[in-house]
Amino acid sequence: MHRDIEKKRDVTLAQVKRALPNVPLPRKPSAELMATLGYPYILPAPRPSGDVVTQGESEERDGQWYQTWIVRDYTDAERAEQLERRRADKLREINDQYTAAASPLIKEYPEVEQKSWDQQKADAEAYLVWHETQQGEPPQMMVLDNILAGRNGEDGTETLYELCLAVRRNAQAFAEFQLLTGKRQRLAKLVRAAEGVEGVGSINW
To answer: How far apart are CA 16 and CA 35, in angstroms?
Structure first.
């Protein structure tokens, strides 16, 4: 960067070349040449730390121009916007990780069937308890009797007992899926309640 002494502003070398079209400037002109032309070099200064850091107008000290920086804290509005952005990013991250962990458990089941899992399990457990004693009338099935009819079609031989055993075997996968669902909901709740960006960042799957 260079200081345009006449116009009192900071400019790039490309801007200097456009301002001096008849002056053949080398690729890396010397400090002496640029000072003679009225465009002395601006010496760089280390970038300070801070919430918002922007480059300021150069300033002259002891005949040399130096880069300056403007540092300020985030405004309340900026902090709130950052927090909402970070929350949205973290929720997206949690949901992606939940999907990756849960998908293998449910990949063979369409979503509409997943909604009946709890009732399938309840039906199966009730029937298996009755099956052990055979006392009284068998419990009324809310979903499994219809599922069994669909599985057997016109010539199937699967019994309700066999179907209930199959549902019980699959119950572990259902339980793991529900556990992951609860974990996702818990983490999402923590993210929404976090009061700062660092607090949101500390929440992990």
So the answer is: 12
**If you compute the radius of gyration of the chain from its CA atoms, what whole number of angstroms results?**
35
pTM: 0.58
Give 111's pLDDT tier (boundaries 50, 70, 90).
Answer: confident
Can you give the pLDDT at residue 114? 77
